[in-house]
Amino acid sequence: MASYDIDQAAGLRRMLERPVPRLFTFFSVLGEEEKSAMLINLAAALAQGNTNVLLIDGGVASSGLLTRIGLRHDVATLQEVARKERGMHEAVRLLPEGFSMARIARRTVPGSNSAQAGRLAEIFDSLIEQAEITLVNGVLADDQSMPVPTMEMGEIVIQVSTTASSIKAAYVLLKSLSDKIGRRPFSLIVNDATEAEAQTVYANMAQAASRYLAAQLKFLGSVPADDHIRRACGQGRAVMDVFPFAGATIAFHRLAKRFAMPQEVKSTYGMATDGASLGV
């Protein structure tokens, strides 16, 4: 009996010590190139910090994440696994940069009412349980729903730049997402900006979000304008692997530390139960 109690206690300790899976879904008002570069480089920076990272592509463009990281467009999708057309081992790839990657669908973004929606959600949930941090390239379906309901339970990150048109588009996106999923925290990452410029963009957007949307906006960080990012992506590689001393490399490592920062009490998939945001 004593041995059983000890084994049970050890098992409970392992469960409690295991990091809570954390899910970040990214939406962007910038181009596909900027969004892909953000996700690929952030995933690589997290992996270099010994974090178990999964990157999931929610888009269906042939010029999306898979192509930019050098994978074939015909890699099995989670939707095909849900249909039992392909196996899970064909859908998840471990990349040389140290993170794993999967794709939700190939031709159209599945909506919440699509066939196999329940099975797709089960596969998605089981997959992100195996990672410490999951980053999702967020794309809405034609019915404006998210492909998997769990994506609404983690952190939602909006990528913006310092231009007036970008800030206006980000506010419209924030309002649209608030209307769909209700009042909840959102986070902001600012591209092509110094930390001071990014803080100014954040302060203005946070004030407007609070006043007109009753939405809480958190600041995650910034990435400076740096041509090293484009040059590295042109080689299908992360900027820190090609240019380890570039300003962008330093910025992505700083962002990765914020994403990996230990959090307070969280519900499933990392949203803080007290209303605090992830990664801040």
What does this molecule look like?
- The radius of gyration is 19 Å and the shape is globular.
- It has ten helices and eight strands.
- Strand 7 (185-191), helix 7 and strand 8 form a beta-alpha-beta unit.
- By secondary structure, the protein is α/β, with parallel strands linked by helices.
- Helices cover 41% and strands 16% of the residues.
- The chain has an eight-stranded mixed beta sheet with strand order 3-4-2-5-1-6-7-8, with helices on both faces.
- The protein has helices at 2-17, 32-48, 65-68, 78-82, 117-128, 164-181, 195-213, 227-234, 239-242, 247-259; strands at 22-28, 53-57, 93-94, 100-103, 133-137, 155-160, 185-191, 216-223.
- Helix 2 (32-48) crosses helix 10 (247-259).
- Mean pLDDT is 85; it is low at 264-269 and 271-280.
Write the layout of secondary structure elements.
Blueprint: H1 2-17, E1 22-28, H2 32-48, E2 53-57, H3 65-68, H4 78-82, E3 93-94, E4 100-103, H5 117-128, E5 133-137, E6 155-160, H6 164-181, E7 185-191, H7 195-213, E8 216-223, H8 227-234, H9 239-242, H10 247-259
Parallel strand pairs: 1-5, 1-6, 2-4, 2-5, 6-7, 7-8
Antiparallel strand pairs: 3-4
Beta-strand content: 15-25%
Mean pLDDT across every amino acid position: 85
Shape: globular
Largest sheet: 8 strands, mixed
